[in-house]
Amino acid sequence: MTDTAGLPARRAALAILSGVLQKRRPLDAGLDHLAGLAPRDAGFARALVSETLRHMGALDAVLRKFIAKPLVPHKAGATSEILLLGACELLILKVAAHAAVDAANELAAKDSKAVHFKPLINAVLRKVAKEGEAVLSGLDRERLSTPDWLWTRWAAQYDAGTARVIARAHQHEAPIDIILKSADASYPPSEALFGNVRRLTDPGRIEELPGFAQGDWWVQDCAATLPARLLGDVRGKRVIDLCAAPGGKTMQLAASGAHVIAVEIDAARAERIQENLARTKLPAEIATADARDFDTKAPFVLIDAPCTATGTIRRHPDLPWIKGAADVTVSAGAAYEILESGAALVEPGGTLVFAVCSLEREEGEEQISVFLSQHPEFSRSPISADELFGHAEWITPDGDLRTLPCYLSDKGGMDGFYAARLKRA
Predict the structure, then answer these.
(1) Does 88 qualify as catalytic in the annotation?
(2) How far lies 91's CA from each of 5, 97, 135, 141, 192, in Å?
């Protein structure tokens, strides 16, 4: 990539990173800045932002070794973000020093405040190019790149050792898993994980891979496939899938022969479910409605509740920096309302599965503990290792599902998920 070709990508990366760090704007919401870029430039910009966020604590610690006093944000403009991106290019992406430093200077020249810090940016990044590797090698990268609000929670909820291996898993980008619609589906180069789940070995552009256009498979993390499996045999049965977008679990259930009602409050996200169903040629009914107001009953109800999604940090490295402990409380409250409403839809003798892609106990284990204490008509239906392809380590002492990003580490890890299966009397 030439310096000239890479500058638009770096400008986009700076705009996205500034949105995340200054406005707490989600990374995915900032991808509109990639519009108009060539695919290669767009890919570079996204990788640059993602890796900067993934290693941000450690990169910041390296930079602070070479900056005499902290920068004042309202005076320095985008200087901090330009330095972080430059350090990421040098230390993580291994871009040639002259290209990374020159690009950082060009970015500063276009910022009305950062332009006054060009000499600092130039000097600091040249030092990072020469001495940064040595500094980085002496840092506790896992601890530094995990904000205090998460590290202290994980150390308390699990233990210090588990908190560290979770943080270590977050240092690496998540692989891409696909779910085969049927046994005779065509699929791209991949390795089998379990059931009909395969992990891509050479991702490329998803839309161009074999079998995608034909609807033979869809993208879904292996951990995200487990909650729907906990419902058991749903062939010919009615299943309500609450908070259904983007539709992975809906497609799973439809492919299993269930009569699925997918409930999604957001019209645009409901449309995405419809598009996925159309491509895979799978039948399901879509209801654009608030899960708390839906009133159809069914023998099976699946709730993939809203949460802080801390189990997906490998895919969303912005999450630790745009969320905080208060968001856990807010998400848990909203999810509990949906749990109460969803439980009311379960017919007598029916099954309810509640799931969240969060590592936080308040959003998972504690929700179920409170719910069961208030609803004697429901009882926990413990999960067996056989249902999880022999992975007994994914089962909590109470018999619920709990996966961590460090599980399946020899194959690239998995998302963090919690799920509980309840039976109605």
Answers:
(1) no
(2) 21, 10, 10, 13, 34
Cα-based distances in Å from 307 to 26, 80, 220, 339, 355: 15, 30, 18, 12, 10
Task: Please tell me the chain's helix, strand, coil percentages from 3-state DSSP, rounded to the nearest 5.
Answer: 50, 15, 35
SS3 411: helix
Whether 413 is in a domain gets the answer yes
The owner of tokens 């332009």 is 115
Q: Which helix (H) or strand (E) holds 324?
A: none
Cis status, amide bond into 8, omega within 30 of 0: no
Q: Within 10 Å of residue 203's Cβ, how many Cβ atoms?
A: 15
CB count within 10 Å of CB 78 equals: 24
The domain boundary residue, chosen from 163, 187, 220: 220
200 with 275, same domain: the answer is: no
- Tell me the DSSP string of 259-270: EEEEEES-HHHH
The H-or-E segment that residue 393 falls in is none
CB 276 within 8 A of CB 241: no
Which of 10, 3, 24, 94 lies closest to 55, judged by CA?
Answer: 94
Q: Which of 243, 307, 357, 406 is catalytic?
A: 357
Task: Please check whether residues 14 and 75 belong to one and the same domain.
Answer: yes
Q: Which helix (H) or strand (E) holds 81?
A: helix 79-91
Question: What backbone torsions phi and psi does residue 294 show, to the nearest 5 degrees?
Answer: -70, 140
Residue entry with tokens 């920068």: 71
User: Per-10-residue mean pLDDT for the chain, 425 residues long?
Assistant: 69 97 95 92 96 98 93 89 98 96 96 94 98 98 97 96 97 97 95 97 90 97 98 98 97 98 96 97 97 96 97 98 96 97 98 98 98 98 98 98 97 98 98
In this prediction the pTM is 0.94
User: Is it true that the peptide bond before 246 is cis, omega within 30 degrees of 0?
Assistant: yes
Total structural domains within the chain? 3
Enclosing domain of residue 185: 176-220
Alpha helices in 291-375 (DSSP H): 319-322, 325-343, 365-374
Cβ atoms of 357 and 329 closer than 8 Å: no
Within-domain flag for 171: no
